[in-house]
From TrEMBL, chain A:
Single GO term (MF): transmembrane transporter activity
PANTHER family: ABC TRANSPORTER, PERMEASE PROTEIN, GUANOSINE ABC TRANSPORTER PERMEASE PROTEIN NUPP
Name of protein: Inner-membrane translocator
Taxonomic placement: Archaea, Methanobacteriati, Methanobacteriota, Stenosarchaea group, Halobacteria
Taxonomy, superkingdom: Archaea
Coiled-coil spans in chain: none
InterPro entries: ABC_transp_permease
Topology in membrane: Multi-pass membrane protein
Alphabetically ordered keywords of this record: Cell membrane, Membrane, Transmembrane, Transmembrane helix
Subcellular location as annotated: Cell membrane
Transmembrane feature ranges: 28-50, 70-92, 104-123, 129-151, 163-182, 215-232, 264-291, 347-366
GO cellular component labels: plasma membrane
Main location: membrane
Automatic annotation (TrEMBL), chain B:
Alphabetized Pfam families for the sequence: BPD_transp_2
Record has Chaperone as a keyword: no
GO CC terms of this entry: plasma membrane
Keyword Ribosomal protein: no
Signal peptide coordinates: none
Chief localisation class: membrane
Domain of life: Archaea
Topological category with respect to the lipid bilayer: Multi-pass membrane protein
Protein species of origin: Natronococcus amylolyticus DSM 10524
UniProt name for this protein: Inner-membrane translocator
Cell location: Cell membrane
Residue ranges of the TM segments: 12-33, 45-66, 78-96, 102-125, 132-157, 177-204, 238-260, 272-295, 316-333
From TrEMBL, chain C:
Topology relative to the membrane: Peripheral membrane protein
Species assigned in the record: Natronococcus amylolyticus DSM 10524
This protein's GO CC annotations: plasma membrane
Renumbered residue ranges of the record's region Disordered: 505-545
UniProt-listed Pfam families: ABC_tran
Cross-referenced InterPro entries: AAA+_ATPase, ABC_carbohydrate_import_ATPase, ABC_transporter-like_ATP-bd, ABC_transporter-like_CS, P-loop_NTPase
Protein name: ABC transporter
Length: 376, 349, 545
């Protein structure tokens, strides 16, 4: 069978087989199953707390896609989750547990705001100056986030300090210090709430498509571009192969010539750079200034769930972020229109993560129910 | 206990350097800024340190048992949150505030933690869940459901003032200088913690159960071929770790008297610090308790600085334990972990 | 020993399958009382599975177990132990940070007032040791991790005896021992037999089996081929039964003579992770067209030396040269690119990413090498072609580049690794245990390839614990002991006995002069020819045949 069409066919089959690998189905199944089951548990809790679960479910839908406003809000959160999710996925894929995305986004956000505020007096007003400052802000956030993540990377690589714990500690520290600063030295005298100066006019991402002032399609575009760059980088470059191989099996990566220490630091830095970008987008696109970070949504933590749902695949992060964006968006709706405490949604996110951690559970469920029976 | 000599030598050197730096810093503070050291290191400070260290020490002893047996219980923080909210909810629901009710609340908190841990243990051991991800999930669930429950009960994520645990006082003896206050005018929960720590040490190193725990984490097959069910040992230690973390959370609440559900809740990273405490204590319950004391002391400094009017932001001072954790992990990072931690055990195939 | 006493153990028609693989197919086995019975077979022939069934670790699909004539069924090792059966696994079942005493009593601790009664345990263990002449009681308070492998093995045996074992199963007990330690172990086994114990001895080494056992059962592909008395058989006959065909023990002829030095070290010293010197002042030279064999008991610094050669470790002192150029501080990646290929010691952990398919594994180590990578960008179609070439040329089964590496058998994994590592005309190949855990077919294939590579001009460093492999392939053999090369021998001139003594840190002539020995046998003063004869009893004197 050496005629050309046959071989092409063979190659195509092989590609298809790899794309539609059973494990891909399985992962999607686990993601859908985890989310569905967690939502179901959430509704049971709602009922147990004496509220109407059907009404609550309806509010979840209305609050996420029920109106243009709700949908734009969903996209706004989706943008943040995509970036934060990619930040987590980069690290988890390489076997480094960066739980510090929340802290890195705080550091990135404040660096973004401060660099813009400091440079603003030297830059002419108007759209060009604004765009320039915006770029400076994004750049500063990337650098600051990267550096703040490089620290636990170095501590892990060269001193053996468990990165899970150091990054969690660095979250507390970032939030504490930035919180202190925005309530102290950085707080303008006329500010009635805890915040920095407002960013100058012209700094920001234009809304373009939707009328929501807090969402720009450019922000979403930026997030998707980052997904593209990271996805290509992971699968098509030597560095990406080094990183992913380290995540699968560090000993084999080392034997193949990967410098494990440098890879850990590079991974953490890359992850932190993307995390810093989350902070910048949050500050520029949504807030317009910086607030006490203990009041910022826990995007960095929810991103762990996003990434895990996506099996740490940057492309998979997009649909997972849409789901979480919708959940977060309906949370805003629930907070106003329902008596059910909104913290429930955080709890549901936690349950999603718990289920994602135990794929065996779903394999067993699948076997018991006879779904996907012939797969192992 | 033999340590890798090279690593331990490096550790000692770094530890010495850290100690030297701390002493130098203290000296600079005292001389340069006229800090009244004698007014910072008071008996009250020591007492507060003991109280602050107790929840950490309890969770650390629990986590240590789980890890010794081969299961990394990274959910300590979450179980502490559950312990605290359960104790608070119990106190609020029974509506009475005698010391007996505080004890009841603690017992209920431990019970509820045990039930929750049982589900968690099944996921980890039977369904071989990823221990790191599942542990994080427990934290997230705690961070969500504890404030949720608080909102349902009290309308806000903060409880009103609840009963708290009083100190006992032994007549006459409590008048003794220093010792009197520490030993005879103390929270019974500190004494309970001490008892737990000592019992944990004896069980781990002097009883057959301790042997089994150690073997389950180092070489589960050896234990299995000796006829002991490895997973039963692991179920026991994970349950114990959840119960101790829950107890730690309840003790935290019983000392504070109010549940706070804002931000990272009142537990605020103590479960994570507990993990570092047992690493620092080299998996020895007494070592872990001493490490907890260190972190408790760092936390207590905040109050001391306030009482002597040193103008450092309370919020910044509150970060000291977290900085301490990073320093400890950096200097002491390469602890020798039990070799089979994180690996599910199956006896056939 | 009455004539009609039932056998200690009788296995009848034992069948055990794992998925589609039949590990044991209706195997019969009969262990007479007070005898040493060897279970001989290749890796994967089902020896260990059969014994794990007997020990209660696996449950058989069919068949019955009789102990002392009684049919028994074991759900767990505990049941087996209760019936007086103990097993010493190839990988010792010891808890390394715990003391010898704690390990021996684990699971059967004497209790006094709720606490473990260490005094009672100590007395009982000492009594046991005195009865059989074990030295284990000297180390009761020592953590196992501080003991050498031979002592650990004796701890395992004492552990079984402490638990009341009448029948002892030893799984590949000699794999980690020096030839002299092996001798000591065999004497110990005879001692145990004399005291009324029955022993099963699993091995794939013909010499040992012939030397130690009364009777030998040969397993092949899960079937019991035959059971023979050791006195009535020969090495050749056993080998034929094991492999199913004639096996040649001939050393193949070679044409090319060694050329220029390619890889050299100069006074190389390495301090290990624990602060002890693991490699001391090693001078090594490998030439083109040469295979340099390194013999030694595991743990004598080979791992550290390999790491310094491959570039995974910077030595503390000394220099490494490639074709005359110093590369001491050059990392693994640059060395790879410069032509130092390596077959890793641990193929599962280092050689392959188990979760990757063979295409992705074909890139491992080549991820910066053209044509697979150009300026940091990967060319997956080139990698795929490479994977297909390796599979074809090295006869890897299944011949499917999308197969997951972890699903391949050990032999096929190893062939794939060898194919990948020599794919780019390296100048040097560091081959660490290239045939460990590999079936006979793959073993011969890999040996042939290594010899071909030598003819083509490669300099090969061959680290192996198999003396026959070293003697069949190497041009020179150096012996490594406690971090140093203590001697160099000619693979044709030398004997297993000489190599064995060197591996134990002694020279043949020194041995003859020694007054007393700390090891149980060979310590006696003995004239040289005698020593040779003693060891040759085991080695079967293959060179003479």
């Amino acid at each position: 069978m050496s005629d050309d069409p046959g071989r092409t066919r063979e190659a195509l089959d092989r590609v298809a087989a790899r794309l539609l690998d059973a494990s891909v189905y399985e992962r999607v199944g686990i993601a859908v199953g985890s989310t569905g089951l967690a939502l179901l548990i959430g509704l049971v809790v709602v009922a147990a707390a004496g509220h109407n679960p059907l009404l609550f479910a309806q509010q979840l839908v209305v609050g996420s896609v029920g109106s243009t406003g709700a949908f734009t809000r969903t996209l706004r959160f989706t943008t943040l989750f995509i970036l934060a999710g990619v930040a987590v996925a980069v690290a988890f894929r390489a076997g480094v547990f960066n739980i510090g995305v929340q802290g890195q986004l705080v550091v990135g956000g404040i660096a973004c705001v401060l660099s813009i505020l400091w440079l603003a007096p030297f830059v002419p007003n108007g759209p060009v100056g604004g765009a320039g400052l915006t770029l400076v802000g994004l750049f500063a956030a990337v650098v600051a986030g990267g550096l703040y993540a490089a620290l636990p990377g170095v501590l892990k690589a060269y001193y053996g300090a468990n990165e899970i714990i150091t990054t969690i500690m660095l979250n507390f520290i970032a939030i504490g210090i930035v919180g202190w600063a925005v309530d102290g030295p950085l707080r303008p005298d006329d500010a009635r709430s805890v915040r920095t100066e407002y960013l100058p006019e012209g700094v920001g991402l234009p809304s373009l498509v939707f009328s929501d002032p807090n969402f720009s399609i450019l922000g979403l575009g930026l997030a998707l571009a980052v997904v593209g760059v990271v996805a290509v980088g992971m699968t098509r470059t030597s560095f990406g192969y080094d990183m992913v191989t380290s995540g699968y099996q560090a000993s084999a990566a080392t034997f193949s010539g990967v410098d494990p220490q440098r890879t850990i630091v590079a991974t953490m830095t890359l992850s932190g750079m993307v995390a810093g970008l989350v902070g910048a987008v949050f500050a520029i696109m949504i807030q317009g200034y910086f607030i006490d970070p203990s009041g910022i949504g826990t995007y960095g933590f929810d991103a762990i769930a996003v990434s895990l749902l996506a099996a740490n695949n940057p492309v998979g992060v997009v649909p997972a972020s849409l789901l979480f964006g919708a959940l977060e968006s309906s949370g805003s709706h629930v907070q106003i229109h329902s008596d059910v405490p909104v913290q429930l949604i955080d709890g549901i996110v936690g349950i999603v993560v718990l289920f994602v951690a135990a794929p065996e559970l779903f394999r067993m469920l699948a076997k018991r129910t006879g779904l996907g029976g012939e797969k192992r | 206990m033999s340590l890798a000599t090279g690593a331990s030598r490096r550790r000692l050197r770094l530890g010495g350097l850290a100690l030297l730096a701390a002493v130098a810093l203290a000296a600079v503070l005292v001389v340069q800024f006229d800090v009244p050291l004698e007014r910072i290191l008071t008996v009250g400070f020591l007492n507060r340190t003991l109280m602050l260290a107790s929840p950490i020490a309890l969770a650390a002893v629990g986590g240590l048992y789980a890890e010794k047996s081969g299961v990394f219980n990274i959910g300590l923080e979450g179980f502490m949150i559950f312990g605290a909210i359960t104790a608070a909810a119990t106190l609020s629901l029974v509506g009475a505030s005698s010391q007996l009710h505080v004890w009841l609340a603690i017992v209920v908190a431990v019970g509820v933690s045990l039930v929750l841990t049982a589900g968690y243990a099944v996921l980890l051991i039977r369904y071989k869940a990823d221990q790191i991800v599942a542990g994080l999930a427990v934290w997230f669930i705690g961070l969500g459901f504890a404030p949720f429950l608080a909102s349902l009960l009290w309308g806000t994520v903060r409880s009103p003032g609840l009963a708290s645990m009083n100190r006992y006082s032994v007549p006459y003896l409590s008048e003794l200088p220093v010792v009197g206050s520490i030993l005879f005018n103390q929270s019974p929960l500190v004494v309970l913690t001490l008892a737990v720590v000592i019992a944990a040490w004896v069980v781990l190193y002097r009883t057959r159960y301790g042997y089994w725990v150690q073997a389950a984490g180092e070489n589960p097959t050896a234990l299995d071929t000796a006829g002991i069910d490895v997973n039963r040992v692991r179920y026991a230690t994970v349950l114990f770790s959840g119960a101790m973390a829950g107890l730690g959370g309840a003790v935290l609440l019983a000392h504070a008297g109010t549940f706070i559900g804002t931000g990272d809740t009142m537990v605020d990273g103590r479960g994570w610090i507990a993990i570092v405490a047992y690493l620092f204590g080299n998996y020895n319950p007494i070592g872990a308790a001493l490490a907890a004391l260190l972190f408790g002391g760092l936390e207590g400094l905040q109050v001391q600085f306030q009482t002597v009017d040193i103008a450092v932001s309370g919020r910044l001072m509150g970060l000291l334990p977290y900085v301490g954790v990073i320093v400890v992990l950096t200097v002491w990072g390469k602890t020798r972990m039990p070799s089979s931690v994180g690996e599910p055990y199956e006896s056939e195939e | 020993m009455t004539a009609d006493a039932p056998p200690a153990v009788r296995l009848e028609e034992i069948t055990k399958t794992f998925g589609d693989v039949v590990a044991n197919d209706a195997v019969d086995f009969r262990l007479e009382r007070e005898s040493i019975h060897a279970l001989l077979g290749e890796n994967g022939s089902g020896k260990t599975t059969l014994m794990n069934v007997l020990y209660g670790l696996y449950e058989q699909d069919a068949g019955t177990i009789h102990v002392d004539g009684e049919p028994r069924s074991f759900d767990s090792p505990q049941d087996a132990m209760a019936a007086g059966i103990g097993m010493i696994h190839q990988h010792f079942q010891l808890v390394e940070p715990m003391t010898v005493l704690q390990n021996v009593v684990l699971g059967h601790e004497p209790i006094d007032g709720g606490l473990v009664d260490e005094d009672a345990a100590r007395e009982e263990i000492e009594a046991l040791c005195n009865r059989y002449g074990f030295d284990v009681d000297d180390h009761l308070e020592t953590p196992v991790e501080e003991l050498d492998l031979g002592t650990r093995q004796r701890v395992e045996i004492v552990k079984s005896l402490y638990r009341g074992a009448d029948t002892l199963i030893l799984d590949e007990p000699t794999a980690v021992l020096t030839p002299q330690e092996v001798e000591g172990l065999l004497d110990l086994l005879e001692e145990l037999r004399a005291s009324g114990r029955s022993l099963i001895f699993i091995s794939h080494k013909l010499e040992e089996v012939l030397a130690a056992a009364d009777r030998i059962t040969v397993l092949r592909d899960g079937h019991a081929v035959d059971t023979v008395a050791a006195a009535d058989t020969s090495r050749q006959e056993l080998a034929r039964m094991m492999v199913g065909r004639e096996v040649s023990f001939e050393r193949p002829a070679r044409e090319a003579v060694p050329g220029e030095p390619v890889l050299e070290t100069e006074e190389l010293s390495i301090v290990g992770d624990r602060g002890l010197e693991r490699v001391s002042e090693i001078d090594l030279t490998v030439r083109a067209h040469e295979i340099l064999g390194i013999a030694g008991v595991q743990g004598n610094g080979q791992t550290e030396l390999i790491e310094a050669l491959t570039g995974h470790r910077v030595p503390d002192e000394g220099r490494v040269h490639l074709r005359g150029e110093e590369i001491t501080d050059v990392g693994r990646r640059q060395r790879l690119e410069a032509g130092i290929a390596a077959i890793p010691e641990d193929r599962n952990a280092e050689g392959l990413v188990q979760e990757y398919d063979l295409v992705k594994n074909a890139l491992l180590g080549n991820q910066t090498v053209p044509p697979y990578a150009n300026d940091g960008w990967l060319d997956w179609s080139a990698v795929e072609t490479h994977a297909e070439e390796i599979i074809e040329e090295f006869d890897v089964h299944p011949p499917d580049p999308t197969a997951r590496a972890g699903s391949l058998s050990g032999g096929n994994q190893q062939k794939f690794i060898v194919g990948r590592e020599i794919g780019h005309d390296p100048d040097v190949l560091i081959a660490a245990h290239p045939t460990r855990g590999v079936d006979v077919g793959s073993l011969e294939f890999i040996h042939d390839r290594l010899l071909e590579l030598r003819e083509e001009g490669l300099g090969i460093v061959l680290i192996s614990s198999k003396l026959d492999e070293l003697r069949a392939l190497a041009d020179r053999i150096v012996v490594m002991y406690e971090g140093a090369f203590i001697d160099e021998v000619d693979p044709i001139e030398t004997s297993d006995a000489e190599l064995g003594l060197l591996m134990a840190g002694q020279r043949l002539e020194e041995e003859a002069e020694r007054e007393t020995g700390d090891r149980s046998t060979l310590g006696e003063t003995r004239p040289e020819p005698d020593a040779e004869a003693t060891v040759d009893r085991r080695s079967g004197g293959d060179r003479e045949r």
